[in-house]
Amino acid sequence: MTADELRDVRLLEDAERFHDDLLESLVAEFESLAERYRGVAYEPRTATATIQVNRSTEVVQLPNVKVTAISAASVDDTALTVGQLADLVVWDVDGQVQWSSGWAGRVVVTYTHGFTEPPPAVLRACREFVRSKALQHTGNQPRNAISYTDDSGFSYRESTADWNAGRPTGLMVVDDALNSLDDYRTPGIG
Fold first, then answer.
1. Does residue 63 sit in helix, strand or coil?
2. What are phi and psi of 29, to 5 degrees?
3. How far is residue 50's CA from residue 46's CA, in Å, rounded to a whole number?
4. Residue range 123-136, pLDDT digits in tens
5. 189: pLDDT confidence band, cut at 50, 70 and 90?
6. In the chain, helix, strand, coil percent, each to 5?
7. Which position has the higher pLDDT, 49 or 16?
8. How far apart are CA 78 and CA 81, in angstroms?
9. Which residues pair with 98 in a beta bridge?
10. Which helix (H) or strand (E) holds 145?
11. Which of 93, 99, 130, 155 could form a cystine bridge with 26, CB 3.0-4.6 A?
């Protein structure tokens, strides 16, 4: 999401209070967190992996899942030809690449991975994350308070981030949206 796309969120329309740089840095923070938490890129990304293969094998495991294209590959600094690249079989969800000729040695693969566009739950979670963090950044509320009592005597307990408990951000609406998404951290799951 861009800062302009976030301007329709209530309270974020004030460009003087919430500068584009702040909003875009919060979007980048959310993208990184969401992708690490679910183990998948929510928009197309390009990566290069170097894998040392000690014994000949037909399948190599890339570090990312939802592989959509292989743009280049080499074995021991010898690039695969266009015809050899066409022979590769990509198991996109698992992030595995099969080559019937076999992989052995230093394998370098450049590829594209991730969703073609973010699911609606990711966009909702991003909006809520950015809104909450932007307000926290410019507000006068205490940071990192686990609980507090207001002037009328009401006590509040804030949710805190705990990945193992399914709360990667500590923001319940954001965490609920992220937890509704498939988990790709284990290849073959999702």
1. coil
2. -60, -45
3. 14
4. 999 999 999 999 88
5. very low
6. 30, 30, 40
7. 49
8. 9
9. 59, 89
10. none
11. 130
Q: Distance between CA atoms of 14 and 87, rounded to whole angstroms?
A: 53
Q: Which two tokens stand for residue 142?
A: 């205490």
From 110, 94, 117, 97, select the one nearest 41 (Cα to Cα).
Answer: 117
Other CB atoms within a 10 A radius of the CB of residue 112 amount to 16
DSSP state of 164: G
Half-sphere exposure at residue 110, Cβ-oriented, CA atoms within 13 angstroms = 7
Alpha-carbon span 169 to 188, nearest angstrom? 25
| pLDDT per position as a tens digit, 103-114 | 999 999 999 999
Q: Side chain identity at 108, as an amino acid letter? A: V
Question: Distances in Å between the alpha carbon of 178 and those of 39, 112, 128, 172?
Answer: 11, 23, 12, 10
Tokens of 89: 């079989």
CA 156 to chain centre: 31
- Beta bridge partners of residue 97, listed in sequence order: 60, 90
Q: At 126, which helix (H) or strand (E)? A: helix 120-138
Q: Are 137 and 96 in contact (CB under 8 A)?
A: no
CA-CA distance, 66 to 47, in Å (whole number)? 12
